[in-house]
Specification:
Helix content: 25-40%
Number of strands: 6
Largest sheet: 4 strands, mixed
Structural class: alpha/beta
Number of helices: 5
CATH superfamily: P-loop containing nucleotide triphosphate hydrolases
Number of domains: 1
Length: about 150
């Protein structure tokens, strides 16, 4: 299983024990044309079978360059994942920022299944129809309502 962070907050890594001062991630690797394998964290924090690909820490100019690159190529994520030579049984979970973004669009373009996690409140409920708009590959959007 691969968990991939496409949220510029770069917080997903913290759930897997990657040190706070680690700056490596897919944004930096992509901009420097390094293979993603160089920024993969395997079995971190005692979680066997999970590989983490953090977003990485970048300065604002690099953040804009990375976002423009992702926005320019809708297949960027699918193509990048292809370089990892994943097995048909591999599962990739992609974390994106909330709401519509270039990161969400590229994730949905590459996805077979999409899951939106929303709060159990009126504002989140009202936003659900916007989440169900067709995507380029017509990915099905599933809903989960959390009550805690």
């Amino acid at each position: 299983m691969i968990v991939l962070d496409l949220d510029p907050q770069n917080a997903l890594r913290l759930h897997f024990g990657i040190p706070l001062d680690s700056i490596d991630g897919i944004s930096r690797a992509t901009l420097s044309h390094d293979p993603w394998q160089t920024v993969m964290f395997d079995g971190v924090d005692g979680v066997d079978g999970v590989t983490v690909l953090p977003y990485g820490a970048v300065v604002e100019d690099d953040h804009r360059r990375f976002e423009a690159l992702v926005d320019h190529d809708p297949n960027w994520l699918a193509d990048s994942l292809h370089t990892l030579a994943l097995d048909a049984n591999d599962i990739v979970i992609v974390d994106t920022p909330p709401g519509s973004s270039v990161y969400t669009r590229t994730a949905l373009t590459a996805a077979n299944i999409a899951l939106n996690v929303v709060l159990a409140d009126a504002a989140s409920y009202a936003a659900i129809p916007g989440m169900e708009r067709p995507t380029p590959r017509r990915a099905r959007i599933s809903r989960v309502r959390c009550t805690s």
